[in-house]
Amino acid sequence: MSEQNDQQNLSGDEPRTNLIINYLPQSMTEKELYSMFVTIGPVESCRVMKDYKTGYSYGFGFVNYAKAEDAATAINTLNGLQVQNKRLKVSFARPSGEEIKETNLYVTNLPRNVTENQIEDLFNKFGQIVQKNILKDKLTGLPRGVAFVRYDKREEAQEAINHLNGTIPDGGSEPLCVKIAEEHGKQKAAYYAGWQAGYNQSRDKKFAPNSALNSLSH
Question: What does pTM read for this prediction?
Fold first, then answer.
């Protein structure tokens, strides 16, 4: 399905049954996500969004309910729920993947001992942070000095670039490089738009919306 077709399909009025869940723990599986949200009502589909190649979780997912009232109840009930070391943000999925383009920042030259709280403190003054991920070395488990920070709006991301790019943070020794995560951001936006436009279509068997539910029955 082309991007143009995606946007056309997104233009119609649809029942507000589709939720986006941010701040998922990195280890959370689709089965666990489904089990949490099905307690509210029948779930038609759910998916944790991951990198195609590495399987690395982006830290967010989608849950589509059969009924709009169940989706609203899920927001009221599960938004802010503490799960492991994360506090979930549950909200209605926005109508277009276009809206999240250029909101995801790629940040390098961070101190190697940087924490998520420090990332939050550094970036939250410029807008609402939807998601943040500190990349870690697979062998040592230690931070690599690289992170992704995604804002709710592209102007917030641009504001962060304007103020933080080239600055040296507390505890750092090099100027930060803060820029739009081009390929990473495009892939996430495509994921988002594709899910929104096609959760009731099976473009690809691997990514068909009901595949997550089918896998739960095995």
Answer: 0.51
